[in-house]
Write a structure and sequence with these properties.
Blueprint (H helix, E strand, L loop, with lengths): L6 E7 L2 E8 L6 E6 L12 H12 L2 E6 L15 H18 L4 E6 L1 H11 L7 E5 L18 E6 L7 H8 L5 E6 L10 H12 L1
Parallel strand pairs: 3-4, 3-5, 5-6, 6-7, 7-8
Antiparallel strand pairs: 1-2, 2-4
Helix pairs in contact: 1-5, 2-3
């Protein structure tokens, strides 16, 4: 299989099938699981920010898994306000561990998916090797309940975000041990015109 070819799969999830897109690389150094934005507002695994995070991980020789939450695309079930989606993410992580063997986990999420990624990370036996949260939904989701995070994380945030208030994100994470904040000037929620910069920042954070 070519390095940049994505394979579509359906796996068993807690509320029905879960639809995955998977890339595999020889001598992979990690597996990256990426969570998409809010399902009720058009969020899917094909979102441009999610795709950018996938490419960043792939280009650093990680296997990648992006997936549709329950009720999106070919994934079964119905939207479950974050708790069910966290269970979906945990099921994908467990599948990836079985599929690829024990290797470092890179867990990433955008917007609503940022909350889900952080919630799922907290429920792992060990904190993931990398956690990247892009414009995490800190107002509409109970993100404060997840703090303090038990491990390191990088938050990438646009300073002109029109969906998630930048000051809410900066205020919540300011002073949090282990959290690196990367700010993008003049950048909207969906990183319009800034996806190249986002990919570069994600690659730097993933190392």
């Amino acid at each position: 299989m070519k390095h940049n070819t994505e394979e579509k799969l359906l796996i068993d999830g807690p509320a029905g099938a879960l639809e995955l897109l998977v890339t595999r690389t020889e001598q992979a150094r990690a597996v990256a699981v990426i969570c998409h934005p809010h399902p009720l507002h058009g969020g899917t695994m094909h979102n441009k920010v999610v795709s950018t995070l996938m490419r960043a991980a792939r280009d650093l020789n990680a296997n990648t898994v992006r997936f549709n939450f329950r009720g999106v695309g070919e994934s079964g079930g119905e939207h479950a306000a974050g708790a069910g989606e966290t269970d979906d993410c945990k099921a994908v992580i467990d599948w990836a561990a079985r599929e690829f063997g024990e290797m470092p986990l890179w867990l990433m999420g955008f917007s609503f998916g940022g909350y889900v990624a952080a919630a799922a990370a907290r429920e792992q036996a060990g904190w993931p090797a990398r956690v990247l949260l892009v414009a995490p939904s800190v107002e509409r989701m109970p993100f404060a309940d997840l703090l303090p995070l038990p491990g390191a994380a990088t938050v990438l945030m646009g300073e002109a975000d029109e969906v998630v208030a930048p000051e809410a994100v900066f205020g919540l994470f300011d002073g949090q041990a282990g959290v690196e904040m990367v700010r993008f000037a003049d950048t909207s929620h969906f990183f319009h015109g800034k996806l190249v910069e986002l990919k570069a920042a994600a690659e730097q954070a993933l190392g």
